[in-house]
Fold these 2 entries.
Entry 1:
Amino acid sequence: MPGYTVENKDGTCRVSLAGDLTAALVPALQQELKAAVAGGATGVIFDLGGTVMLDSSGIGLLMAATNSLRAKGGRVRVVNVSADIFRLLQSMRLTARLDVSVRAGEDS
Amino acid sequence: MDDALLGEFINESREHLANIEADLLAIEEGGANIDEELVNKVFRAAHSIKGGSGFFGLGRVKELAHKAETVLHMLRSRKMAPNAEITNVLLAAFDRLREMINRPGESEAADISDLSVSLTGLASSYLSQEEKPALVGTVTLQPEGGGPAVTLPQVDFDRARQGGQTIYAVDYDLVHDIERQGRTVLDVFSDLWQTGEILDCVVDFDSVGTLEDAIGNQLPLRLVFATVIGPGESEVLFPNMGGKVKVLFDPAKPGKAAAAAAAVPVDPTDRSDRSDPSDRLVAIPVAPAVRAAAPVAAPKPAAQQAAPPPAQAQPSAPSPVAGPAAVEDTIRIGVGLLERLMNLAGELVLSRNQLRAAIAQKNSQALATADGRINQVTSEMQDAIMQTRLQPVGNVFGKFPRVVRDMAAALGKDIALDVRGKEVALDKSLIEGLSDPLTHMVRNSADHGVEMPEDRVKAGKKRQGTIRIEARHEAGQVVVEVADDGKGIDPERIARSAVSKGLIAAEKVQGMSAQEKVALIFLPGLSTAEKVTDISGRGVGMDVVKTNLDRLGGKVEIHSEPGKGSTFRIKLPLTLAIIPSLIVSVEGRRFAIPQINVEELLRVQPGNVKTRIEVVGDAEVLLLRDRLIPLVRFADVLGLAPTYVDPATGRRETDRRSRLADRRSPRRTLDEMAAVGAGEGAEAATATAVAEDASRERRSADRRRNPAGALEVAVVTTGTQTYGLVVGSFHDNEEIVVKPLGRHLKALGEYAGATILGDGTVALIVDVAGLAAKADLAAVSGTARAREQAQAAEAERLTDSHALLLFHNAPDELCAVPLDTVLRVERIGPDEIEAVGGRRTMQYRGGSLPLVTLADVARVKAIGEARDLAVIVSSVRGREVGLLGAMPVDVVETRAVIDQTTHRQRGVAGSAVIRERTVLIADLFEMVDAAFPEWGAERDAERRAVQASAKVASAEGKGAAVLLAEDSDFFRAQVKRFLEEGGYTVLAAPDGQAAWDLLEANLDRVRAVVTDVEMPRMTGLQLAQRIRGDERTAALPIIALTSLAGDEDVSRGKAAGIDDYQVKLDRDRLLDRLGEYWAAGARAAPSG
């Protein structure tokens, strides 16, 4: 099981994480994203609905994706993050750049 | 897990916010004398809310908290002195914070722009010209040991500096310094949050590269961090980082901070690497007017926006953080109490084990021990648990300073609040239930009670009004009072309002005492405010208050004095739950008396009855050691026939004793008691009684000497009143669970509730005070003076108040007629009057209405040239006539004494002083007789026939007479005059008792009775009953004259034996009916 699903539709690539976004996953994801961008995607949405842990590689991936997309005039969004992750990204002053939004109504 | 943490944060924040309001108000009061500790306290509260909210992604909360913090910081550093405007803005900000904390999920969508602007505006307006740029200015710091300079907002820097904090610049590489050290990013940041404040964090986006590059090799960021941890201990914070941690500012070496405090305005549009601008005061364009003012210039927009704004923005933005609104369902308990509970739980376990062992061994001795122990532990535990629910009333009182302050400001009044008894404890549920009613009452007092300052000064009061909220314990209850020294409640106004709104019949109101009229305030739908203000609501208030209180098992009383003020007194049971009580039985039914009301229990042996029970005045009293207390026979109150067990036959017989006291018991009047003094008197009585008793004892075996005839008396007290309650027998003391009475029984004042006893039967719980009221007890003070006062009060209650219609004759001459005689009042101009043949008339309702003025018959001034005329239409001698006067007219109710001599003349029955003016009371009948003598001709002919027979009867019967009972001198004289003119001899008496005495003395002369209803000593109904009850007089016809003539009153009168019920002063009707009875020589057939 890959730990994520990728869905390309109308120029937007939606990456849904089934679990944590950590170093283990990053290489594979990076390839997927590269492909998507090369294929003309102008937007990437990271859905971290299933994510509890985000390590520096994960953060790095988000930032790299942002850099890539921006260069092409596209945008990145990070949605459905947990409260913990949100506060972390906020302390790092990354929430605006990465366009981070928090998930609604946790049922954990 | 998230929810739990969030929940904890919310609870903590709530606690912070709970006290902030009181603190802010205290700060405001302190004025220029800033209490730094207090400001610090509020500051820290805002600070911790800010901190935590950032954690949970509650960005708006954080932003608002931060802005509030800035203002508080300025207060703390004395850059501004607290005033109303600042306090208002801060109060509003914290209110909003509270709302947002309570609904964290919606907080992100909340619109706080108005408060943001206000707070920023405040902050900016209070800075001097030089300091203003600090709001938007920055400071640049050079790190020790080289490296790029760091630029910070001046405000943040100042704050850190004043907090004695060290500012570090830390170059992290997330990958190397954190991950590879085996820690997580989250951990690191958590630690940082807890130990200080992240002033800035800059992630080097570029160095991360793009998707094309290798990810995960590095993630550099630079952190600017302020913390109290000094350079010496910074290793703890940043282990193994060495030179990557640089000190930007060391409080120990302040000189270094010199660096350019230049005005380098932060460009709000620059978001290149400031991703989260919400955590600093961005230069929001403040209105030029504000910036221009150097010293304190209150910015208008800020002041006006102190009020919370309307609806919040629709959440179209990213979905907010978890959770529906968190409900307040927690309670604070002292640790000591918790420990006690833990101990008791332990004890309970031990006792249980003991019990089980004892049962297993079938050891009755051990069982008894275990029973005792379990009983004890259970009681203690129950007590402790109940205490956990006890909260100080002050929790509810806490919000009132704010309420009163805001209301006073809104209404333009000057009101001080006096709060007492904050520590009085009540069950939690009662406290919650009390909150709304109290709020309503306080608002009422502020709105309707306390007058405007000018009015108060005019009335000779202090300019500042006072509202007093007080809680105290009284006789097993908690009393909470809301009192004001305002204008009081006018019972008449309430009554009129209730009648005009159709909430109660006019007749019912007429008989009410002032207290009862004031109590009408609790009728739903009543609001006497001319202008229904937003503040106290649309008259839905007081009845809801009463309902709420009823539901809690409480009562509310109103005591008010017009002009002086009002007191609303709420009485609540200490606890709804379980109370110790004494079970008693009366005639086979069991009742519970709350232990707290029971003073002692007595058994009065039959032989002692005559010495211990006395008759004083009308009541029976018990001699209890050195004082006398009234006795109440419970069976009497219940309406049960008392019984006893006959010792001879063992059967239950009805006890025919109408009195508990023995025939041999001393009888005294109250005066004797006062003169002799209870002690001496009792001794004297005892001496004689003993002597008598000794001789009688030998004579017969007395039922009364049998123990079965002993009296069981429970001496009960309400705290202010003590009396003896005679019951059948006493049973055990039991702890009972109090259940409130059902709706149908609530009105029974003598019961406070009900309970289910161990065997399943229901026992009513006695309300000792209510029972006293029902048994009509007055304190037996034993002095003549007390009796005098009581009589005076009674007399007052029964004195006729006259309802008069006032009108003008000459412009300076006031006249009146009794309102009861008035059919209608019409307003006309002089041109409607027709003068024909020396008489005046007007067209009226299809006919001609004869008019008469007082000047026509009496020596008074003429109406003159008045243009605005009033015609008072009445019925005299069967016809309508109009009494002509001048506007204005008015209706008054007065108890003023009517002087029947000074101004007496034909047409004027007397005079009275009303509102400091002399008012002539017109006698309409005399006026009509004088003006239209021909009207009476026919009637008089009839009457003369009657008179003839009356005179015949008089001659035969030695002057047959009519008995007249009427307490108002004025009416008595009037009616006497009518009757005498009608040819009757009249025996007049001023009250029922005197009338009866007169009747007894003239049994052979009196042939009919005419009586008023409301009279002192004996009312008309009582007189009627007496007459009917006595064979000698039972056949007399009785006509009642009264102003009360509703259906109820009529049927009550008929039931008492009254033959005809007439409204006062319809002379013709009275004479007609009297004539009928007279001619019949006996009671006429009951009239319909």
Entry 2:
Amino acid sequence: MRVMVDEGKCQGHGRCYDLAPDVFEPDERGHVDVAVHGDLPAVLQPDARIGVRNCPEAALRLIAETGERRAPHSMSVG
Amino acid sequence: MTKGLAVTHQSDEENRRAIRARVTGSPRPPRQTYQRPRESAPKQQKDVIVGRRCDVEEVLRHPEIYSSAGRASVGSARPMCPVELDPPTHSAWRAALDPLFAPNQIGEFASSIARLAAGLIDGFAGEPEIDFATEFSVPFPAQVLMMLLGLPLEDLPWLLDLKDGVTRPNRALGKPQDDPEVISYQTMMTTEVYNYFGTALDTRQGDPTDDLLSRLLEVEVDGQRLSREALLDVCFGLLVEGINPMSAALDCVFARLATYPEFRDAVAANPRQALEELLRWEAPVTFVTRTAVTNTVLGGCPISAGQQVFVLLSAANVDPVENCDADVLRWNREVNRHLAFGAGVHRCLGSHLARLELSIALREWHARIPHYSIDRSTDLAFITGVRTVDRFPMHLGRQS
């Protein structure tokens, strides 16, 4: 599972890195940087979900790696 | 001022009566005011009222249709930067200014901000009664802004006069907004704002320090240092946007906590989550405005170029499509995507500072003043828009 950022949508609210600082971090202007590149370790996935779902701009998504089974819950962030 | 505002006032009045019948004396819940807009498609009147979450997002994410130019009525001679700019100019400005207000940058001031909060609170903690507005919710954010900018704290009374002179000259003079005296006072104070910050910038021009004003002198937009006028336009924006909305947030949050002591347990248990829920619920800045620059359609409502659009952040925050139990303060929300700081390219530049100030205020306050209350008979008169109160009598200590 990986985090995808739509940089055109991120406005630097900072909810993701407040809620899941092990997965997300602020860049120098307060927009999101993903702290974990590539596949997310299972232990970080719950935090990543929280960060993704709380983005006011719906700028974040979680995507399953090829061959990985889709998570049972919807990843939609509305 | 405009028909759109009048509409908001009217529904305020109606709802106020309904609420009084139920909860005598408690602060007016904003959600009641926005029962209709949050569930209705945009309304075609002289101005357009937008309250559903989906429509609010649509407006705020399309600055090419809904412009921020000329939206503020604060008497500034030129547009305030960056709030009254549109992309692409705005984008360059935000890229330059965002780093000054980024969380890591702002976080360095946490202990200084805490000292300011503690200093104010220690000054009145032994009193039986205070006016929360004059003693805390106004001076605290003003002092923080002055500290960041590197302005001497003894200028506080003058800075507040300047702020009120440009943002609320009618209240400063106690006369109607269209009174000629109010208009000339606002114009005079606008000039004084430019004078005050001009002098402060001059001092730093030859002798820079590490304060925010000195750093502004170094900022480049599109590879160019800011002109004198541009610097003053940023300062004007910081004065207008940097104090009143923070005072409103403090007034809203502390009014709620003073009225419902049990809510303080939630703040103590999980301060950040509780603060986000209070921001969603209270929406201290109730609405922002935009002007349509082309003919368009929003949620089925035709909008003509030139029409003003009132974007009700408060209504969007209690839209049941976005939030389950939208009308309930729920302290354990796993998802809270509230728009108290706006959305889109104009997301509040100071949102990280505001969150830090609020969390510090809550912490320092409750460490010193665990017991406080408002008389049931006190009707806090929140100003529509940026929800401050002029008078906020509060009892400190246990009430017998």
